[in-house]
Amino acid sequence: MKPNIKNIAVLTSGGDAPGMNACIRAVVRTGIYNGINMFGVLQGYQGLINNNIIPMDARSVSNIIHLGGTILKTARCLEFKTDEGMEIAYQNLKARDIDGLIVIGGDGTFTGARNFSNKYNIRVMGIPGTIDNDLYGSDFTLGYDTAINTVIEAIDKIRDTADSHDRLFFIEVMGRDSGCIALRSAVASGAEAVLLPERHTSIDELVSQLASGASTKKSSSIVIVSEGHKAGGAYDIAKQVKEQFNHYDTKVTILGHLQRGGSPSSFDRILGSRLGFAAVNEMLQGTSKAMVGLRGNEIKTTGIDEALSRHSFKLENDLLEMTKVLSI
Ligand SMILES: Nc1ncnc2c1ncn2[C@@H]1O[C@H](COP(=O)(O)OP(=O)(O)O)[C@@H](O)[C@H]1O
Ligand SMILES: O=P(O)(O)OC[C@H]1O[C@](O)(COP(=O)(O)O)[C@@H](O)[C@@H]1O
Ligand SMILES: [Mg+2]
């Protein structure tokens, strides 16, 4: 039986990701189209606790589909992990008769939503929004494609300098525990090597790969280092390599937070729109404690418990192999 849902709130939480605005727009407009009163929560779970909840109409989400960041703002909120914080958040939703909460974020955000819904009578749906692509249940998360495009644009520029000066560049990219951005960026930019948190690569191995390129007259080399790599960040690794292999002038670039901003790619705008539309429709059909995600080219629903308990290895095997073969 379809539940009688009248009021739905939406929030963004954790790291912002390009495509979140396209998704907020889809959530708000799909809800309004179906006769639901829509609310936006400012600053993620912090806004639930601070009672920062605003009504939204179709025009509240005009002209945002192309914008990076999130018009609802986001936050990392420790207080929501406490019983007291959750109780205040629930009372603020109850005061407005809000029966459904749609959260756009990563694994931390989903854990919060799952715990909240286990404790209180609130329906929740999750939408995977993180540049890290580290969630089970969606082949791509919102923002991942744009972040890769941003990274390769930067690497293309660095390559000009690397090549002009016979330099070895170590470029550190984001992905807290995930090598997804690093691997795709490496393939798309034609990097000589990539270091991933999911794979052990010794300094000896890396040095022999670089030395072999130098011996076949490579004028420059680019190594992508994922920030989550166990052997340390790009500066550490560059220092260790230089001690053994001093053929090139060595430079380090940390791309940092520029990777999270910017106008979303068409892929992320469409993905955000599809996921937002699906999340509201699923909620209106009675689905709760689930996430919507892209699998193949279809939008599918996965239970949040399942999504959180299954840590999928998301690095494509052919891409892993290719990074060695195509960089000879
Ligand atoms: N165990 C938890 N219980 C309640 N809320 C949580 C829990 N884990 C994370 N959260 C909430 O989700 C927010 C976002 O999580 P975080 O890991 O920072 O980002 P992401 O959702 O992108 O992975 C946290 O700041 C916190 O408010
Ligand atoms: O902006 P902050 O708080 O320094 O967080 C940086 C982290 O956020 C991310 O960009 C995205 O992580 P989440 O999507 O899990 O929030 C990571 O790649 C990075 O390690
Ligand atoms: Mg996360």
Report the radius of gyration as a whole number of Å. Answer: 22 Å
CATH topology of the largest domain: Rossmann fold
Roughly how many Å apart are the termini?
60 Å
- What CATH architecture of the largest domain would you give? 3-Layer(aba) Sandwich
Q: What is the chain-wise order of helices and strands?
A: EHEHEHEHEHEHEHEHEHEEHH
| Small ligands present | adenosine-5'-diphosphate, 1,6-di-O-phosphono-beta-D-fructofuranose, magnesium ion
Query: What is the β-strand count?
Result: 11
- Physical arrangement of strands within the biggest beta sheet: 3-2-1-4-5-10-11
CATH class of the largest domain: Alpha Beta
Q: In words, what does this structure look like?
A:
- This protein has helices at residues 20-33, 44-49, 83-94, 107-119, 144-165, 180-189, 203-215, 234-244, 266-285, 304-309, 317-325; strands spanning 7-12, 37-41, 53-56, 100-105, 123-128, 167-173, 193-195, 221-226, 249-254, 290-295, 298-303.
- Helix 5 packs across helix 6 (180-189) and helix 6 crosses helix 11.
- The model has no long low-confidence stretch (mean pLDDT 96).
- It has eleven helices and eleven strands.
- The chain is elongated and about 70 Å long.
- It has two domains: 7-143 and 264-309, 3-Layer(aba) Sandwich (Rossmann fold), CATH 3.40.50.450; 145-260, 3-Layer(aba) Sandwich (Rossmann fold), CATH 3.40.50.460.
- Helix content is 41%, strand content 19%.
- By secondary structure, the chain is of the alpha/beta class.
- Helix 1 links the parallel strand 1 (7-12) and strand 2 (37-41).
- The protein binds adenosine-5'-diphosphate, 1,6-di-O-phosphono-beta-D-fructofuranose (FBP) and magnesium ion.
- Adenosine-5'-diphosphate binds next to helix 4.
